[in-house]
Write a structure and sequence with these properties.
The complex is a heterodimer of chains A (314) and B (557). With 314 residues, chain A is an all-alpha fold. Chain A has helices spanning 2-29, 34-39, 45-55, 61-73, 87-122, 127-141, 144-158, 174-208, 211-218, 223-234, 236-252, 255-260, 266-275, 279-307. In chain A, helix 5 packs antiparallel against helix 6 (127-141). Chain A is flat, with a radius of gyration of 24 Å. Chain B has helices spanning 44-52, 77-83, 105-117, 121-134, 153-165, 183-200, 211-217, 235-241, 245-254, 322-329, 355-363, 381-386, 398-411, 428-440, 458-475, 486-492, 510-515, 520-528, 532-541, 548-553; strands at 4-15, 18-29, 33-37, 59-67, 70-71, 88-91, 171-175, 203-208, 220-225, 228-234, 273-282, 296-306, 311-315, 337-342, 345-346, 364-367, 446-450, 478-483, 495-500, 503-509. In chain B, helix 3 crosses helix 4 (121-134) and helix 4 (121-134) packs across helix 5. Chain B is globular. Classes of the chains: A mainly alpha (314), B alpha/beta (557). Chain A binds chain B through residues 3, 6-7, 10, 125, 210-212, 214-222, 229-230, 233-234, 307-310, 313-314, and chain B through 52, 54, 57, 77-78, 81-86, 89-90, 92, 94, 97-103, 108, 111-112, 115-116, 147, 149, 160, 163-164, 285-289.
């Protein structure tokens, strides 16, 4: 298990290094001079040259790459071209919205999907199963912005239980912040839960047809206990795979929901940065997202090994 | 006469309305082995699953299954859960998949003990350790925290037996417990079952299609066909006298030797396939970040040749390297060392895109054990059988292509109109015929056969062996015939090679090697191979200890 973890960790480091190089050099090729962009179209060539010198843009590209890497290792992502504030600060402001939102949505989706998956697998072919599966079809088909608007109309406008949008920050305690995230989290979780429930159901059904399930039944264990004790853990691998993919999506792919609820999240930051050609910010966010995906996949790999002892040897 | 443990009375079973069992009667006594024999689809396994009440959805059973003083068919599911694993244990056919891969063997044996006795974990584990010791897995070598994937097939079957017998059930049902194992492991597992039956005095229902195994093991026998009991009685009597025509038919099929002209023909001096000093290493397990264990030598300095038109058998225990050797001969895998020449071509040094490789592949075809797994279910037989034709130098015209397909199908005894149908429309034996048609369509000189009949029933097996003999006679095909079944080797090979731990340890004319094996590995195989005639002779001759019925019937001859 130790060798397995060390091996995976090595892969994480190599992947991060390669990904950072790709991000850096791709943005290097993109046309547009950051110094001229910062100073605007009317700046004199002298002023641009001076700023280039100040930003270190005249140094060889490898030197700048390593300086950039070293900076990131210290948590210094450089300074935004449009806002003239450290990128780290910009990202941090958004992460405190996006990360809790992603975790909340993921938790909700898991909490709905796993029980639905188990319930439907245990009652395959019954009316309850058919109805639940039809429900998941609907969950996948409904566009989440429409569902989000529906939530706002019912719970914020009509019932007035939660605010319709905006984010008060965490300064006044956990509850006001959490209240603002509940509806967006539900809107995000619904389609994810529908997908996850279907995956969990089919993985469980496949597992329940295995020979060792029959062996467990022949021991005298009732069907339900066999499902919990023998089938569930074996069916975890596809479920974990989907969970890992969903987390990465939920962290930055939520721009529509952020817009519906006026949330200052990472999705909006990326969108604005791209519009304004603020490449330093784009660079920082992309590296952060790559790192998150790689680390989540690492955790998923560890979870695989937990679920299946056959994988621990590799 | 002991009291019956299980009395099945006029059991009828339908699944989805289709009749599976019709009026089956059967009585199992304590301390006795009751064999349930029949071809696949005869209802053997369904009789067992009815007894366990683990039938698939849509199954409806009627009749009575008296177990002690209750009727199992009338018992509640709750009551069945109390009986299963405690009073009735079951062992299945496929040990590789019968254990949960994510739980340790200790957990899996202890689980039933805890569930039925309410014992705490340490007590249950102690009992589990004791049980594993009884089935030949001492905890010094097989600690409880081993996972199934760390054990071999034979060891896993021992774990399954430990699970089934942990609570000393009154009745044990073993459904083809050794069919997936090689003969040596089969003999060991059967001995273990015999031992448990005599020590614990339980009744054993042994489901098998192998009359040799049955003749060796069983006290009583019930022979099923299409869900109807054909003959029942004392096993040795039934198998010795063979009064019932179906019993006779099964016995003949299991010892079937094809009519085969070329058997007597002497071999040519030239070699069609010549293998010299072949070695294959597989990388060892990863021990650390960069370290690897010693490589595993699957094939170790093997040399042999196959003359044209000759059938050469390759026998050995599972894991001895037979299939690896076959893969390398077929150029599906690269050897670590050594050379292979086939029909004058150095195939071991050819690459996949060489023109000579296509020629070699055309002249050397393969038939696998499981024909269904090697067919794409969405393609018609026409496409499947014609598949190797792309190896031809020039593309064949429509008419010629069709002619070749019809010829291949006729050679294997299938009608020409089979080509418009799909694989699932055929039975296992017919599918194996189609696989053979596919192998001969390029008019090869050598066909490598990897256990081609071991998934088939005895009567189908006899027909397929006849087909192999006929093709050898008519087309002059040479075979490299891989099998662990010595009866098959005896029926269809001129010469046989015995493989053990990657080496060929013995080779000679088939009858010589099998009648008088010289090496320890060959002797082990021959001694373990079940044989109907020998088993009956042994049991009729062996009067100690005679059962009352045996004393009347099978007195020393």
């Amino acid at each position: 298990m130790l060798a397995y973890t060390a091996h995976r960790l090595l892969i994480v480091l190599v992947t991060l290094l390669v990904a950072s190089a790709v991000v850096f050099f791709v943005l290097e090729i993109v046309p547009g001079d950051p110094a001229r962009l910062m100073l605007g179209l009317n700046a004199t060539d002298d002023a641009v040259a001076a700023l280039r010198e100040q930003m270190g843009l005249n140094q060889p590209v490898l030197t700048r790459y390593f300086a950039w890497l070293a900076g990131m290792a210290r948590g210094d992502f450089g300074e935004s071209l449009t806002y003239s504030v450290p990128v780290t600060e910009l990202i941090a402001d958004r992460v405190i919205v996006s990360l809790p939102l992603a975790l909340l949505a993921l938790g909700l989706s898991t909490a709905i999907a796993i029980p639905v998956g188990i319930f439907t697998a245990a009652r395959r072919g019954t009316r309850a199963d058919t109805a639940a599966m039809a429900g998941t079809q609907l969950g996948i088909a409904i566009p989440n912005f429409w569902f989000a608007l529906l939530l706002v109309y019912v719970f914020a406008v009509t019932l007035q239980w939660v605010p319709a949008g905006g984010f008060p920050g965490w300064d006044d305690g956990v509850w006001p912040g959490l209240r603002a995230l509940i509806l967006p989290a539900i809107a995000l979780a619904l389609p994810q839960a529908a997908i996850l429930a279907r995956v969990a159901r089919s993985a469980l059904l496949e597992t329940l047809a295995e020979d060792y399930i029959r062996t467990a039944r022949a021991k005298g264990l009732p069907a339900n206990r066999v499902l919990w004790r023998h089938a569930l853990r074996n069916a975890m691998i596809p479920v974990l795979t989907i969970l890992g993919l969903q987390f990465a999506f939920l962290l930055a792919g939520t721009i529509i929901i952020e817009n519906v609820f006026f949330l200052p999240g990472l999705g909006q930051l990326v969108f604005q940065a791209i519009n304004q050609r603020d490449l330093i910010v784009v660079e920082g966010v992309v590296v952060l997202l790559v790192a998150t995906v790689v680390i989540v996949n690492f955790l998923v790999d560890l979870a695989y090994a937990w679920a299946d002892p056959r994988l621990r040897r590799r | 006469m002991t009291a019956p443990i299980l009395a099945i009375d006029t059991l009828d079973l339908t699944i989805g309305g289709a009749p599976i069992l019709k009026g089956v009667d059967m009585v199992v006594e304590a301390g006795k082995v009751h064999a349930l024999v029949g071809e696949s689809g005869s209802g053997k396994s369904m009789t067992a699953l009815t007894t366990m009440r683990l039938l698939p959805h849509g199954a409806e059973a009627s009749g009575t299954l008296r177990f002690g003083d209750e009727d199992l068919l009338a018992a509640t599911e709750e009551r069945m859960c109390a009986l299963r694993g405690d009073d009735i244990g079951m062992v299945f056919q496929e040990p590789m998949t019968a254990l949960n891969p994510v739980k340790t063997i200790g957990e899996q044996v202890a689980e039933g003990i805890r569930w039925h006795t309410g014992a705490n974990r340490p007590d249950a584990e102690e009992r589990a350790a004791h049980m594993l010791e009884r089935v030949g897995l001492p905890h010094t070598r097989f600690p409880l925290d081993r996972y199934p994937h760390e054990l071999s097939g034979g060891q896993r079957q021992r774990v399954v037996i430990a699970i089934a017998c942990a609570l000393r059930p009154k009745l044990l049902i073993a459904d083809e417990p050794t069919t997936a194992l090689d003969v040596v492991l089969q003999a060991q597992i059967l001995d273990l079952l015999k031992e448990l039956v005599s020590e614990d005095g339980m009744g054993l229902i042994l489901i098998s299609h192998d009359l040799g195994v049955v003749a060796d093991m069983a006290d009583d026998i019930t022979i099923l066909r299409h869900g109807v009991v054909q003959e029942a009685g004392h096993a040795v009597d039934v198998l010795r006298h063979q009064n019932h025509p179906y019993t006779q038919q099964l016995a003949e099929a299991s010892a079937h030797v094809p009519q085969w002209q070329s058997r007597a023909r002497s071999p040519k001096d030239t070699a069609l396939l010549d293998v010299q000093n072949l070695v294959k290493d597989y990388p060892g397990p990863r021990n650390g970040l960069l370290a690897r264990g010693d490589p595993f030598r699957a094939v170790d300095d093997v040399s042999f040749s196959v003359p044209p038109g000759r059938s050469v058998g390759l026998v050995g225990q599972s894991g001895c390297g037979k299939s690896t050797l076959a893969r390398i001969v077929l150029a599906l895998d690269k050897p670590t060392g050594g050379a292979i020449s086939f029909d004058g071509m150095q195939t071991s040094s050819l690459n996949d895109h060489d023109a000579q490789m296509a020629l070699a592949r055309r002249e050397m075809q393969v038939v696998f054990q499981d024909p269904y797994g090697s067919f794409n279910p969405r393609q018609t037989v026409e496409r499947l059988v014609a598949e190797p034709l792309h190896l031809e130098e020039r593309p064949l015209g429509r008419a010629e292509r069709r002619e070749r397909i019809v010829f291949a199908l006729e050679e294997v005894g299938m009608p020409a109109d089979a080509m418009h149908r799909y694989p699932h429309e055929f039975s296992g034996g017919q599918r194996q015929r189609l696989a053979i048609a596919r192998a001969i369509i390029t008019r090869p000189k050598l066909v490598v056969c990897d256990e081609p009949v071991s998934a088939l029933d005895v009567s189908i097996r006899a027909q397929i062996l006849d087909l192999f003999a006929k093709l050898n006679d008519e087309l002059g095909l040479a075979y490299l015939f891989i099998t662990h079944d010595l009866t098959v080797a005896r029926a269809i090979t001129h010469e046989v090679m015995v493989m053990d731990h990657g080496k060929i340890v013995e080779r000679g004319a088939t009858a010589d090697v099998l009648d008088d094996p010289q090496t320890e590995a060959a002797q082990r195989l021959v001694a373990a191979a079940p044989d109907l005639r020998r088993a009956i002779e042994r049991r009729v001759g062996n009067t100690v200890p005679p059962s009352p019925r045996e004393r009347g019937e099978g007195a020393p001859s």
